[in-house]
Write a structure and sequence with these properties.
The protein is α/β, with parallel strands linked by helices. It is built from 18 helices and 19 strands. The radius of gyration is 36 Å and the shape is flat.
Length: 640
Amino acid sequence: MTKSEELDLSLSGSRSRIRDRLVLLFTVLLVGAMGTTMAVLLVHRMSETRDRLVDETEVRAQNFAVKVAPSLEFGEPREAQALAAHFTNDSRVRAALITDAAGTTFANFRDIKIPNELTAGKRTFVDDENLWVSVPVLAGSDIVGNVSLRVSLREMKEEMKRTVLINLLVGICVIGLTVILTLKAVNKIIDPVSCLAGTVAKITKDGDYSLRAIKHADDEIGHLAQDFNVMLARIERQNEELNEQHEKLARSERLESLGLLAGGVAHDLNNILGPLVTMPDVVLAGLPEDSLVREDIEMMGKAAKSASVVIRDLLSLARRRVYSLQAVDLNEMIRECAVSPAVTQRLDEAPGVRCVLDLDESSPAISGSEPHLIQAVLNITINAIEAMALSEAKGDLTIKTSNVVLDLPLDAYEIIPPGEYVVLEVKDEGPGLSPEGVKRIFEPFYTNKKLGASGSGLGLSVVYGVVHDHGGYLDVISGTGGGATFKIYLKKHEGEVVPVEKEVSPEEDCSSLDIRVLVVDDYAPQRMLTEKLLTNMGHRAQVSSSGRNAIALLKEDSNFDVMVVDMIMEEDFDGLDTIQKALELNPDLKCIVATGFSETARVESALKLGCGICLSKPFSREALADAVTNALDDGVVLAN
């Protein structure tokens, strides 16, 4: 065999391989497209058929409910049984059940048993063989019972089988015709494409966009290979950027989920902690000074209050807090934090650490809640001190402020949008963080320190929640052995900076007044505790277990001065609904929202209605007294 024959044979084999691959590629794409199309059409057809059957069955059930209503209303089960037997003459209707308003079987045709899904409040349910439909029986506007029907799906399934068979036959014909046309077209592909096709196949198989196609000649195919390589380079860069953004998004979503979980747990614990925080003070008030149990009760009260602090930190993770935003001088706040006992004590325990302030005096005021921002600054500062002390590192802990204007989004720990920011920077010379540590630094209970040796393990998680509650952003810069830098980007205060005067309203201001207070709370221990506290203060308290009951009370007697209402009660009538209806009955009624965990939008809506008091659970006797005083004085107090 000559070299020419060997080359022709090689090219022939190469063309054959290219042809086979392209045919396979086109076939796979076609089969996939056809399969997807058929699946979509079938699902759509099945959905339409099922929806039509559901609609028809619901109409049939509603008609049946209309006919059987008099039997239920006048207690005639035999007549209902006869109606059910007549109504189920249709072969598709296999059984029918009529229940009264209490859920007791009134009439049962063919011994139907209701699935658990329908008893849970669902109107329709489909299993392998039957469709179940349940509708209420109305007598005027009252529900006097319920009608449930079971319908066979056999006819629908037979129709679906015929549809699948027809689509399959059509698809096979189309695929066969396409394969024949593809075989004729791919024979015209020239040989240089084989190398490019091999590269494409390799990339498709391995997903490795670092591969490059070989440019054989300076012709159309060569330019195609060159442009293909440029495209691969761009895809490779975009994939790297996309992976980074995906990782940041996943981290943010993980923290959001943990915050939501923490908030839900905190809400339940707040209800439980309410009596534990408040009752020791009530009991102590009635004990003589020389009582032997005073010390034990005081210890219980302190423990409960410490637990409430942990709950407060958990609530910070939920990022559903309502803050009273004021102009805050960040530099002055940092100076106060630097000389606070919490910081100085830890600096004394770490003699090799020196706190250095580098504050930009031209920094404008920021908009925020000073107590919560102080908590965030303290947490991040104490964390840095403890990180250096743990590693026995010596050096400076630098707290710096600056003004930054971002013209473009900043790709930091999280994407920081363009804008003007006041930046708080806390830099330590400790051991630094590993890449994995940077990713997880704000997760609850993630720490390089011994868990439980310092704090609750929620310090930096609280920082994350507070910063994001203020519309701010975070950045973390660190490497193992190189210290760590935390940056907080906060928005400057818009508008005039007005000093905030804090007024303290003592309990005695309203203790001598004849005040009527309505307590609305669906949690009995909290409801009774609030009533007892108000009674001990000299007020006349009345309780209600729900918002609807409270409105009924106000309709009979709206002469109340203050209403203390829990925000989270019935789903369809919560604290906000109660306040709206109550103010319609008594526009002069002063409202106090008591909440352990509620969505910001609902609390803000209550505040817009004129409810100026938001009392955070668990609350003390003094907090409740101050809330009542402020409400009567038209003050505005938000939850801590």
